């Protein structure tokens, strides 16, 4: 109330000035903030003397100065500034007191704040007071801000200028004012919208038909799309439909938009209207020929969305134009959706329209399974009354009652679990997971922290060690997820703390990995330390990598060795260094850790830190590790069994900003380690064009070859990385056609990269060169099944009759490849186009075999009759004395052996031995 005498009296009698005041927004304010909000500047000094902060307090992030500015209390603003209130303080959205004054159009407050609030430079992406004043239409405030040097063309983080904001707010006068001062009406924000487009978007969102017409008449582009929080974009018609603005639909269609929407979303305007329950809009879209059978990427139609949300009027509008899906098609139908969400009224509508109530989706779930999973008892009863089978199992072997039990366990619903078990649900069922394994219900309960269900499930016959196909026990899952009470309960129920998964991890490993100290504390007394001489990945390693110093304290206190090595020779200090956990490294050093100890790859912890920094592209981390003595010459072992230099690692990851730094440290531009691939090859293979250019600028050799004779251009061509190819072509001269070499043209042909072939041909690479097997690029394109490449090569003079060293034309090569791969359609296609079935295939032993022999060797019995019909002999051919039957028998293809015998292959034929 601004009662100064009352404030003094209350303080004198012991009232606490630090109390805060709750407000409707769910926050609390300090008393100084309240006084500023009310404009009681005469109370400020008194409250400050009582110990309050000039910047406020409570849970709000809005300062007293912001409050006074927002509510137009100019005298209070001045008083707070005199008392050293900070005009540059920001709330969580980056707004200062000047922002609030500009938003509300309080000119006197703006005038007081301008001298102490310097303009934000235009190049910083920030939402400035100019944006706010523009959005709210305060031209007078814009005059003040411009006079104080605030830029009128600054962009916010979405790329919006003040003119965009003015247009979005429908502030025509502000737009005109900004134009007169040089504002650019064609400037686009990050979504590609000009200010006029922004005005159109806002008008569509608000359903402002006059505004939409006006914006379109003045040149706004109806085809612009609107980004959404889901990461996709919508057309303006989709926006209008989602908002229920059916009066805008015809206008937007006349402007050229599609009734099926646009942008990057796969949802149509009809789906959006149905989802949001706009029945009139649904009807209008149907009248305008919107397609009710269109599907999104999940196979959902507009009827699915209406059924999911329970919008009965929308369902009623869509049913006549959405015929039921037959029950034998495995599809998630609107009946499934309505059942899961418990919309019995919608089920009545769907059943009345002939939708089957027992259809299965791709997981084998019926609507009753979905209703049970959603805990929709009324829906289950309704479905049972209409003939639903409670014993029907889905693909996971669950009946609807089992599904009800699973859902109850997941939700920790003890009454639901008891009820399902009492009615015959099977506790032994397992639950499939996203990781491709299945869990027992006890494992599910433990992972969720539902310790109150454990005894009940054990009494039902489940094992304390879990079940399903996972190798993780319930105790491990509880420990991993930090459920300390569940961990203790499982231990009390004799869960085994020493059980290991396939990686050798116990429950203590999982707790240490996640840093769950209470779980660690519960497990330590029952998990004895692993001796240091055993090469094992211990909880100490895990905690070190995760940076959990508190857990390390616990483990060390329980006697776990701090210098143990795992099977790669890594100590906990190596792990801490690899994880960039400086505090853990220091902690381990203080407890006797040896920074010079090397792992099996020869890396010290500091080397490991350097390796990790290079892998992550962390330049500061690389500099720091090098400055402290990490060795740049260390190499990194790979899964392929070779090792790479750090420069090779950086190039493979596209970290071109590290190249000069690593070269200055003494590394070679051509890489190192045991790999024969150079950094340039790695960058080219992985499509890092900027890194390729940087390596070339640093004199990386584009003509270097690996053991197969491949250059960087080969690798770029293989992957179809056109920008890398473009960078390498000027420095990689073509190989002459008469040299038998496997060229980048061969590579691009085999992998079907026509665009790369265009680049190579333009740079003079011959299109008819032969490799050491006599194959031309056309042979390779045919072998890869690249029809477009073959056609492209033919158009440029390629000879389809040219034979390789084995006597194969490109079409023969296509046939041979199809036979080797067991591709029946490919074999038929090649034969139909004239491929010669009598060609033979050279083998590793220096002999040749017929196509029938090769099919038998590969176990492709489905090709035998086709090849026999083409004229081949059941006894094979070529120079080998092994028959097809011998080949199939040798390679263990029993079905092929039987097929050959049925086709009268001679089991008594003998080879030369």
TrEMBL record:
Please name the PANTHER family in this protein's record. Answer: ANKYRIN REPEAT CONTAINING, ANKYRIN REPEAT DOMAIN-CONTAINING PROTEIN 16
Which SUPFAM superfamilies does the annotation name? Ankyrin repeat
Q: Would the keyword Metal-binding turn up in this protein's UniProt record? A: no
According to UniProt, the name of this protein is Uncharacterized protein
Q: Where are the ANK repeats?
A: 60-92, 93-114, 125-157, 158-190, 265-297, 330-362, 363-395, 470-502, 535-567, 568-600, 675-707, 708-729, 740-772, 773-805, 880-912
Keyword field:
ANK repeat, Repeat
């Amino acid at each position: 109330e601004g009662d100064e005498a009352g404030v003094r009296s209350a303080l004198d009698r012991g009232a606490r000035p630090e109390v805060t005041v709750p407000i409707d927004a769910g926050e609390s304010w300090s008393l100084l903030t309240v006084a500023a909000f009310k404009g009681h500047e005469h109370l400020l000094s008194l409250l400050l003397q009582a110990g309050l902060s000039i910047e406020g307090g409570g849970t709000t992030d809005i300062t007293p100065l912001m409050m006074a500015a927002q509510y137009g209390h100019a005298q209070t603003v001045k008083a707070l500034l005199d008392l050293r209130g900070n005009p540059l303080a920001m709330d969580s959205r980056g707004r200062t007191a000047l922002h609030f004054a500009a938003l509300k159009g309080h000119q006197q407050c703006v005038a007081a704040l301008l001298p102490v609030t310097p303009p934000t430079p235009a190049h910083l992406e920030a939402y400035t007071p100019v944006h706010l004043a523009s959005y709210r239409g305060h031209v007078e405030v814009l005059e003040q801000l411009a006079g104080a040097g605030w830029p009128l063309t600054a962009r916010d983080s979405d790329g919006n200028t003040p003119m965009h904001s003015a247009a979005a707010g429908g502030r025509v006068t502000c737009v005109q004012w900004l134009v007169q001062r040089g504002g650019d009406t064609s400037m686009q924000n990050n979504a590609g919208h000009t200010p006029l487009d922004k005005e159109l978007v806002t008008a569509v969102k608000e359903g402002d038909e006059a505004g939409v017409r006006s914006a379109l008449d003045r040149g706004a582009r109806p085809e612009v799309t609107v980004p959404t929080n889901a990461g996709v974009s919508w057309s303006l018609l989709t926006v209008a439909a989602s908002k229920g603005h059916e009066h805008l639909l015809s206008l937007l269609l006349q402007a050229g938009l599609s009734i099926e929407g646009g942008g990057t979303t796969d949802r149509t305007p009809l789906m959006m209207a149905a989802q949001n329950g706009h029945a009139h809009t649904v009807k209008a879209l149907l009248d305008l020929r919107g397609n009710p059978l269109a599907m999104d990427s999940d196979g959902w139609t507009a009827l699915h969305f209406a059924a999911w949300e329970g919008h009965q009027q929308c369902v009623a509008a869509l049913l006549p134009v959405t015929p039921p899906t037959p029950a034998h098609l495995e599809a998630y139908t609107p009946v499934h959706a309505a059942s899961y969400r418990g919309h019995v009224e919608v089920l009545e509508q769907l059943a009345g329209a002939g939708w089957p109530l027992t259809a299965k989706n791709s997981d084998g779930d019926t609507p009753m399974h979905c209703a049970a999973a959603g805990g929709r008892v009324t829906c289950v009863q309704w479905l049972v009354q209409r003939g639903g089978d409670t014993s029907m199992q889905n693909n996971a072997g669950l009946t609807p009652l089992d599904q009800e039990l699973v859902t109850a366990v997941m939700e920790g619903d003890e009454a639901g679990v008891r009820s399902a078990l009492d009615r015959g649900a099977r506790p032994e069922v397992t639950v499939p997971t996203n990781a491709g394994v299945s869990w027992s219900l006890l494992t599910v309960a433990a992972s969720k922290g539902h310790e109150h269900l454990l005894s009940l499930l054990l009494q039902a016959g489940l094992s304390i060690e879990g079940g399903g196909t996972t190798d993780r026990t319930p105790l491990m899952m509880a420990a991993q997820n930090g459920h300390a009470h569940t961990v203790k309960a499982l231990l009390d129920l004799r869960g085994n703390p020493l059980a290991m998964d396939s990686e050798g991890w116990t429950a203590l490993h999982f707790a240490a990995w996640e840093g769950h100290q209470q779980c660690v504390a519960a497990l330590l007394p029952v998990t004895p330390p692993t001796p240091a001489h055993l090469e094992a990945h211990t909880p100490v390693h895990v905690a070190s990598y995760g940076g959990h110093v508190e857990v390390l304290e616990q483990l060390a206190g329980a006697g776990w060795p701090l210098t143990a090595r795992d099977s790669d020779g890594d100590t906990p200090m190596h792990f801490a260094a690899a994880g960039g956990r400086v505090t853990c490294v220091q902690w381990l050093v203080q407890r006797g850790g040896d920074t010079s100890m090397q792992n099996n790859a020869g890396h010290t912890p500091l080397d490991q830190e350097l390796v990790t920094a290079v892998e992550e592209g962390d330049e500061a981390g690389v500099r720091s590790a090098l400055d402290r003595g990490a060795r740049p010459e260390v190499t990194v072992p790979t899964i392929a069994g070779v090792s790479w230099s750090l420069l090779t690692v950086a190039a493979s990851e596209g970290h071109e900003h590290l190249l000069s730094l690593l070269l200055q440290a003494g590394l070679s531009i051509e890489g190192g380690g045991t790999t024969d691939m150079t950094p340039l090859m790695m960058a080219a293979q992985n499509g890092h064009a900027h890194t390729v250019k940087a390596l070339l600028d640093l004199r990386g050799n584009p003509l270097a070859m690996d053991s197969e004779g491949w250059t960087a251009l080969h690798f770029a061509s293989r992957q179809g990385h056109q920008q890398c190819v473009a960078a390498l072509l000027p420095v990689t001269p073509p190989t002459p056609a008469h040299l038998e070499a496997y060229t980048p043209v061969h590579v691009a042909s085999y992998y079907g990269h026509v665009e790369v072939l265009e680049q190579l041909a333009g740079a003079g690479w011959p299109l008819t060169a032969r490799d050491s097997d006599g194959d031309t690029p056309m042979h390779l394109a045919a072998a890869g099944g690249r029809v477009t490449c073959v056609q492209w090569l033919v158009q440029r003079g390629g000879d389809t009759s040219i034979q390789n060293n084995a006597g194969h034309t490109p079409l023969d090569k296509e046939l041979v490849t199809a036979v080797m791969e067991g591709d029946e359609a490919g074999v038929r296609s090649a034969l139909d186009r004239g491929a010669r079935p009598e060609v033979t295939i050279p083998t590793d032993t220096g002999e040749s075999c017929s196509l029938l022999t090769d099919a038998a060797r590969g176990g492709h019995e489905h090709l035998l009759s086709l090849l026999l019909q083409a004229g081949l002999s059941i006894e094979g051919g070529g120079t080998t004395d092994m028959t097809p039957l011998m080949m199939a028998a040798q390679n263990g293809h029993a079905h092929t052996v039987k097929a050959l015998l049925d086709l009268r292959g001679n089991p008594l034929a003998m080879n030369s031995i």
